[in-house]
Protein 1
Amino acid sequence: MRNSDILARRSQAIPAGLVSHAPIFVDRADNDELWDVDGRRYIDFAAGIAVVNTGHRHPRVIARVEEQLRRFTHTSIQVCQYESYVTVAERLNALTPTRKPSKTVLFSTGAEAIENAVKIARIATGRTAIVSFAGAFHGRTLMALALTGKVTPYKLRLGTLSSDVHHLPFPMELHGISDEQSIAALDSLLRTTIAPDQLAAIVVEPVQGEGGFYPASATLLKHLRKLCDQTGALLVVDEIQTGFARTGRMFALEASGVQADLMTMAKGLAGGFPLSAVTGPADVMDKVPAGRFGGTYAGSPIACAAALGVLDTIEEENLTERANEIGDRILALLDPLVRSNAGSVIGEIRRIGAMVAIEFVTDRDSNAPNAAMAQAVVKHALKAGLVVITCGLFGNVVRILTPLTIRFDVLEEGVRILEKSILGALSDRD
Ligand SMILES: Cc1ncc(COP(=O)(O)O)c(C=O)c1O
């Protein structure tokens, strides 16, 4: 079957609400490359949305999974247990910047981890109010959507998602929102809307992912930490997109020196197998009564096996350092373009480790978002054999999320395609 044949079947079989970036169907993938069913090769600058940090089918991950497949595939941790779940928990307890001793509970998706972090915070504090940020993305289940700070397309026509969830502006220097403004909005919220002793948690991404790769400064994170300490609320740090070496550290939060109360993780944790986690101090995690955690597939043995392969690979291949080198190389390669006349529509290039975002604007004076340009760039790129996707509260950001194992010659080839795509999109416009 060819792409065009399967596309026709797709439109009959699958509802329009599921949108796919690329009108192609993948046949196979290896490290930093994909091939579609028509035999066409693509360089992968999306990594399944920051999931295959260790590349497609890393041999160490596949060996662990194959070994697990030969023994058993599923028992449900709530029925008969397996050691790998405990080992993954031990590894995350040791790795995360959370108060020790920590404990970890596993789920399947990022949204589930977020839902459970809210559950833990509400049960442990006996309070209900949750603060999150404009532009944040925390998932597509109803509570995760309540925390998500973007209406279109995620929250339209769903009614009141959850009471007692409040959004603060997230600092975006380019658009004139400073740390001070976010902090003032939080102070005001605690004076006007939420009694400080009713605040259960503040949920924050250390770098907004879907929101556009805007980093939270150490100043903001330290302020949130202090406020949580003063009020008894929990600081929930969502590392679902930023975790597992992506930002040049195991977790992005480490750069601030701040400790989380609860940390949510998913995506890069298991290299493409569905696994998510919440880690937090044992005394907080143990406040949740027996039977309140779980899920039929939560902490699947296959995903746990994969996660152990991923964690070993990050360590053994020093992928935190490699993430920094990838980011350095992308910036160096893009530099001449930014200095050329294409620079007139690039508002900013943000870079945290290997997370690189190019924000497109209509002009440098207004910095008004230019979503059409970002859309045109990724379309040009796909035609030229590069999978790269957009993000941003205004949809005007192209984000680079390569596998952290990407070969440097393939990285350069991909950036060159991206460069040509930006120039192509510019000339379409003219
Ligand atoms: C920061 C963040 N939190 C939560 C989620 C939701 O994860 P999932 O799609 O696995 O439910 C995402 C997904 O993009 C994310 O980037």
Protein 2
Amino acid sequence: MSKEFALGIDIGGTNTVYGAVSENGEILFEASTPTTIYTTPEELINFIYKETIQKIDISNCVGIGVGAPNGNHFTGNIEYAPNLQWKGIIPLASLFEQKFDIKCKLTNDANAAAVGEMLFGCAKNLKNFVTITLGTGLGSGVIINGEIVYGQHGIAGEYGHIRVIPNGRMCGCERKGCLETYASSTGMVRSINELESPNKQNSKLLQVANCDAKMIFQIAEEGDLFAQEIIDYTAEILGSALADFTCFSDPQAYVLFGGIAQAGEKFSTLVKKHMEANVLKIYENKVEILTSKLHDKNAAVLGAAASMFLKHRKKAQL
Ligand SMILES: [Zn+2]
């Protein structure tokens, strides 16, 4: 087998997805495990190692790309991730390298999604765009002139923690009113309790135990007015925030990625409407809202592995 495949690992607040991807985006294998059952990152890495060596010959692998919340590309550390149970600074890339004896590159999960979008997805022809990942939290990967923006310290693009409501909802980062406390799957569920509406009392949402964002969309489809209001409220807060972010990098598009975006074109249309209603005049009708074309179950692994290919490709071009 040629050396042209990489391991892609996406560590999320809820699940970790891992697999092997060829350079043209073919998934060689993929599996997932709940992140929350591992009390230490070493336990998770040992598990992935054990599973992986049964499936592929890792001596033929170009490297491991890991996407994780608050992953710092420069240091290889996860730094104070509010949505993971492992606290503080975790030297994730070196832990993977020690276990696998292969080069490992850590990146923020949203940056991984952005590179995946650029190599294999709907941003193939775009040079300036921002990926917004809507999951347990909200992540963002900023691409300017075809390059990921890492910033001075490797942690640029934390749009999820831009505060959009003064003194708003308490966030996992210990501040209040961050975008992700509204525009994320957990944010939408919080809206069930925290939004007031004349339609609330009769809403089916109040009768459903352990309601998640997917169910909010399903119930809204059935005509439930309160569920529709929650979706519109979420799209309004996100659209308004994207209008403001546009002033920063003047992107061609925002690519929405993840569970909420999977609810279909309707959500992105609503976000677009609210963005246009709030954007500075010079940006009107210039910025698209796209829905990721990679949003099937393989997207996370593709994105994480893609960062290894990007590096590999650049080297080949030099
Ligand atoms: Zn926050």
